[in-house]
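pinned: reference chain
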Amino acid sequence: IGVIDLSSDLWTAGGAFTEAVVRSLKLVLPADDQLFVLGYKITGRWTGLAQEVLLLPPPVSRMRRLFPVLWGYRPVKNAIDHWCETLGISTLLLAQEFASGQASYRRIAWIPDFQHVHYPGYFTSDEWRERDAIFESWARMADDVLLSSESVFRDYHARYPAFAHKARIARFPSLFSFN
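pinned: its structure tokens
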């Protein structure tokens, strides 16, 4: 099983959520299952929790994906696909980028909330459109979509009825429950 590390200097809750997911998985996984955390920087946070931490290259910018020829960029298998196939990962949690419509592993995206819908004043129109486009692409391309609450579940169903069958609610415990 692979888990994308959502740790970020700009979003500390992403790291805490990732850690709650990893710790929850460690409690229920059989001892012979391997757990990999894939991230963009080594933080030391995963020592003793995951078998391996892999450094991924930074995501390709949206402009480079849309206009690859301008930068001499040719789409190839992305690093996440490469590591999942190399390591035999069968399921990837917290997936955020999808190189293609098909993968050799299950991709489970996570939509934390729809704050941009309920609190539009906190988002610029560009941020609003970007979040909406990203969430729609996750709904379309992921095998399942992890949602953290009933309210997010209702928002997801209202916004993406064609992909409602992919929605799953999982309330993860606070990190305090592991101490």
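why pinned: The first strand starts at residue 2 and ends at 4. Strands lie at 2-4, 36-39, 52-55, 91-95, 106-111, 144-147, 167-169.
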